[in-house]
Specification:
two-stranded antiparallel sheet, 2 helices, 71% helix, 2 strands, single chain, mainly alpha
Length: 75
């Protein structure tokens, strides 16, 4: 019964690490391409906020999934 726990723990750790590494890169790209949420009358922020969170989470899901598929295909 230890196998599923180790497998899911490794998947969670790799997805978290990938997301943490990808977030600053996506944030910089969003600022460069002006993909930001501009402040407005009904907003609470004073400066433009990059819309990078969803891109970082998507990267954190897809890269470990692709790496796992490649590892399984090579094994």
């Amino acid at each position: 019964m230890i196998f599923p726990f180790n497998f899911f723990l490794a998947a969670f750790a790799s997805a978290s690490l990938t997301t943490l590494v990808a977030l600053p890169l996506w944030r910089r790209w969003c600022l460069h391409t002006n993909l930001v949420d501009d402040p407005g009358q009904r907003k609470i922020h004073d400066a433009p906020v990059p819309l990078a969170g969803g891109l970082a989470v998507l990267t954190g899901m897809l890269l470990p999934l692709a790496a796992g598929a490649i590892i399984i295909k090579l094994a």
